[in-house]
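Journal club prep, notes for RB
We'll compare a predicted complex against what the paper describes. Inputs for the zinc ion case:
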Amino acid sequence: MQIRFHCPHCDLPMRLSKWESLEALQCPHCEKSIPTEVDAAAKTLVIDHCVICGGKELFRQKLFNRNLGVGIVVLGIIASFFVIPPVLPLVVVGLIDLILFLVLPYMLVCYRCDAEHRGFKVGETFKHFDHLRAARAKQQPTYPGAEENH
Ligand SMILES: [Zn+2]
Ligand SMILES: [Zn+2]
């Protein structure tokens, strides 16, 4: 497992992959302590809340390297100038994208503090990103009536 998050005090990005480092966690930059919400279930890689802020709202997101994805598409476009028929490399790119999408695992991201939980079990209860839930979790105002229209 790996957890990526920002210090709630100074916003320093951090990456932790040991449970021990989450206990009595202190920011290496601002030296303030960061309370975490690790429980016994979390240690078996089952979570129903964010282990950093305790937020109950998490969404699932594919662990997809955006640079890699863009690189593959660019290669496909360049190859289409040299290959006959030109559409062939683009078809291959589409297939690679599809295969990557199917094999890549999900991570769980906290709506409230944006912490990324990698390597945890992602049950069906976790949905994809939803703008309204994000706004609610961050206590941002939503457009009047937006909730009803959803
Ligand atoms: Zn800090
Ligand atoms: Zn959180």
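Talking point for the session: Residues 2-63+106-149 form one domain.
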